[in-house]
Amino acid sequence: MEKQEKMVVGVDVGGTKIKAGRILGGEVIQSSFSKVDKNASQDNSLSTLFNTIEEVMTDEVEAIGIGVPAVVDPDFGIVYDVQNIPSWRKVPLKDLAQKNFNVPVYLNNDANCFALGEKFFGKAKSYDNCVALSLGTGLGMGILIDGKLYNGVLCGAGEVGMLPYRNGILEEYAGSFFFENEYGESAKELYDKALQGNAMVLSAFNQYGVHLGEAIRAILYLFAPESIILGGSISNAYAFFKDALQEVLDSFAYQKQLKKFKLETSDLVDSPILGAAALCL
């Protein structure tokens, strides 16, 4: 992958905040953020987005990439049903942003941006066929096939979190929902306790590792990737659930395939905005 040579802006419309960064050569030169108001009108939330971007814009910026937690039509530049901004039911975001900033704008969903960011700036550089799993509020997945991002229809490929699992869907067990539903605390709160050696919390992460292991095992059967790269906030706790996850993978039917597979954790800082920036490249 060639080194990035043009100045771009990457934007992550996250669950609680919008973050933008001006990026050159894989380095975030300047960043800004604003809180997401889920009750804001479409016009007000767009103003918040554009103001956040404006703080990092310069005349040298050649393009803007935006990642959103939603269904996206990248050809027409429309985002649908943004989960954390209910007023965004159908927003022609590409046209609105291009008119506002007068540079090309590229859109995709946040999980796909994560995968692309890993391809340009992270550990996916050395793989042609790779999956990036974002472990956060939910379970997001981006797919790289022959070195290129696979979007599917309306960027909908990779919704592994929606697969039926136990008495619900995988996302309820392999995202932060699991910790909140089963233990009444966030993954971050439990992670802090795990660092202190709390036995109950260590058991919670073991259980989480089993559920995530089942998700990864399904991905291995479906895509046979060279690598799966874990990112998102829960991946910081990998040391506490990796053994339980590995036990599940030990039951994978094709052990020869498993020997050619590598499970990794992302070491990218600011991966959401770097991933969005990679849309421009």
| Dominant shape | globular
| Widest β-sheet, arrangement of strands | 3-2-1-4-8
Number of strand elements: 15
Tell me what portion of residues adopts beta-strand conformation: 25-35%
Task: Give the proportion of residues in helices.
Answer: 25-40%
Biggest sheet details: 5 strands, mixed
Distinctive features:
globular, Nucleotidyltransferase, domain 5, 5-stranded mixed sheet, 281 residues, single chain
General description of the model:
Helix 6 (187-195) packs across helix 7 and helix 7 (199-223) packs across helix 8 (238-249). The protein is 37% helix and 25% strand. It is globular, with a radius of gyration of 19 Å. It has helices at 42-54, 93-101, 110-121, 171-174, 177-183, 187-195, 199-223, 238-249, 255-259, 271-278; strands at residues 8-13, 17-24, 27-35, 63-68, 71-73, 78-80, 90-91, 105-109, 130-135, 139-145, 148-150, 164-165, 168-169, 227-231, 262-265. The chain has 2 domains: 8-113 and 271-278, ATPase, nucleotide binding domain (Nucleotidyltransferase, domain 5), CATH 3.30.420; 128-265, Nucleotidyltransferase, domain 5 (2-Layer Sandwich), CATH 3.30.420. Strand 1 and strand 2 (17-24) form a beta hairpin. The strands form 4 sheets. It has a 5-stranded mixed sheet with strand order 3-2-1-4-8. A 5-stranded mixed sheet has the order 11-10-9-14-15. The mean pLDDT is 93. The chain is of the alpha/beta class and 281 residues long. It starts with 7 loop residues before the first strand and ends with a helix.
